[in-house]
Design goal:
single chain, alpha/beta, Rossmann fold, five-stranded parallel beta sheet, 6 helices, 49% helix, 12% strand, globular
Length: 135
């Protein structure tokens, strides 16, 4: 493995200093870390919503982490992948859990052919389409 897509929840754990983050560091070390544009948007929203509850160094940690990552923006291929994932959820009657940020993050990993590291069980729904989910 040379690269991984890092899900938003992993970034949040890192910023908060959650002990659970240590579980995922082995997947991050030694790999190029990739962020979906959807994670960037989720993090911006998180900072707006949680600004009073965040550690003092939260924004610094985020900016440092983001600077070491490659950020993937939309492309025709990524859009087609996202549509495929949304259709998969629709066909499996999973409309209630169609969260577009998860779809975009999963589509990014699939489009690049690399795994996503997350502790969000919702990503398991995309394994039948070839998504590699760590752990």
């Amino acid at each position: 493995m040379n690269a991984i897509v890092v899900d938003t929840n992993i970034v949040v754990m890192m910023i908060r200093g959650d002990e659970e983050y240590e579980t995922f560091t082995g997947y991050l070390e030694g790999n190029k870390q990739v962020l979906s544009f959807a994670t960037i948007a989720e993090m911006e929203l998180w900072f707006l919503k949680e600004k009073e509850n965040l550690p003092n160094d939260a924004l610094i940690k985020w900016e440092e982490f983001k600077a070491q990552c490659e950020v993937v923006h939309t492309s025709d291929g990524l859009i087609a992948r996202a549509a495929q994932l949304a259709w998969h959820l629709h066909m499996n009657k999973d409309e209630s859990r169609r969260r577009w940020h998860d779809i975009w993050i999963a589509a990014t990993a699939l489009e690049l052919g690399i795994p996503v590291v997350t502790n969000d069980a919702d990503f398991q729904k995309f394994k039948p389409l070839g998504l590699q989910v760590l752990p």
